[in-house]
Amino acid sequence: MASTLTPEQIFCKYDVNGDGVLQKEEFTRVVDDLFGILREEDIKALLDSVDADGSGEVGLVELKAFLRMCSTETQTLHTKSALIIIDVQNDFISGTLANADPTTTDIVPLINQLRSAMDVVVVSQDWHPHNHCSFVESANDGATPIVTPAAPYDPFALVTLAADADRPEHVQCVFARHAVQGTWGAENHADLVVSPTDGRIYKGQKPNIDSYSAFYDNMKLNDCGLLGYLEEQGVTHCYCVGLVFDICVKSTALHGAEAGFQMYVVEDACRPLNRSEVESTKAQLAAAGVKLISAADAADLARATKGKEVSLAEFVAMANGMKAATKIEKKSSASPLARTPATQRLPAEASPPPSAPLQAVPPLDEYMKQHIPGIEAEIDQFLIALLTTRPENSTQFMADYFSQRTGAAPAASGAQGGASPPAINNRPPH
């Protein structure tokens, strides 16, 4: 069953009452099909470990996190940790976007020390063209089309980028030119240890859209390659470090949590750009189930679980001790990310194929996004109506809602060609 279905399809299959979460009975059926019949007390302990927010139910993200650890072939659960090093580049330390904190370089030895505790290391870098849309210079010289331009702009101004064929109109913060491909400012700090075996991400290469996260660009139109790489490596837990805490580290951690990874931000191995944003950033991370941790504790935790494989019985025995203390998103609809209507997204061929697919056909939710224009906007409106109405039969309510709202089944959209973002482990393009 589970080996041929995506987590989304497993969730839909077992969410019999269609309420958007797995009740205890529904989750029990998942576990029974994966591992065989368990004792009642074992089911309870397992549910407690998976149900990170203590609601007594399992949401989609919680189920994803559990399934990442499962091997139905060996009837075991495993953990595998990844260190995600984000933007420890010269321009963000002493260059054009130099950090005001004089202790910023102190994060470098901490990051280096964490490497040996991890199974996998990924190094992510901003890698912008000279005329990138996030540069204040591009806004002032007209290289970036802006709605109602009012140059000259100062660094950190907010501008509204005009829509183009790739993406919709949206607000962009402009910074001093930084991390330009092939320059000293784009290089990693000289003391940062980087191995040829590390996974590499080069983000923000398209001139017309920025990418804070190492998973996706800011409009979630292009996949940077990190998700597929982590899945290929069998990673379950991610530890984010680097620069800056309140922008790129935060965005990467939120995307990772949405994808069902156990996400940690190593607080003392990061520095913020704006100290006034630290507390609100912590609140956003906590709301998405991302845990803050020290470098020392991260190293201990990663070493304790490094390459660990346990039987289900052993996992159940440890379950109460493993219970997470913070909330993980209950549903994909509760994502901290702003959603973009599918009609404004790049065509399917413009994004790279998913790495290590779980089956021959694409995941159901991705297929819908690619082929049904406006589906995400419609889903957002439906969820608002659902939460407001709280019907007894949510499945019938959904059918009635979309029938009344659309009047007919939506038509499939055509696909066009386009450029793909960089693949992980490729040499940086120049």
TrEMBL record:
Xref: InterPro entries: EF-hand-dom_pair, EF_Hand_1_Ca_BS, EF_hand_dom, Isochorismatase-like_dom, Isochorismatase-like_sf, Isochorismatase_Nicotinamidase
Q: Where is the composition biased (Low complexity)?
A: 407-423
Family as reported in the entry's similarity comment:
Belongs to the isochorismatase family.
- What top-tier enzyme class does this entry carry? hydrolase
Q: Where is this region: Disordered?
A: 329-361, 406-430
Q: Name one Pfam family in it.
A: Isochorismatase
GO biological process: what's one of them? pyridine nucleotide biosynthetic process
- Give the organism's phylogenetic lineage: Eukaryota, Haptista, Haptophyta, Prymnesiophyceae, Prymnesiales
EC number(s): the record gives 3.5.1.19
Which residues belong to any copy of the EF-hand domain? 2-37, 38-73
Pathway listed for it is: Cofactor biosynthesis; nicotinate biosynthesis; nicotinate from nicotinamide: step 1/1
Q: What is this protein called?
A: nicotinamidase
Any one Gene Ontology molecular-function term assigned to this protein's record: calcium ion binding
Q: Which UniProt keywords apply?
A: Calcium, Hydrolase, Metal-binding, Pyridine nucleotide biosynthesis
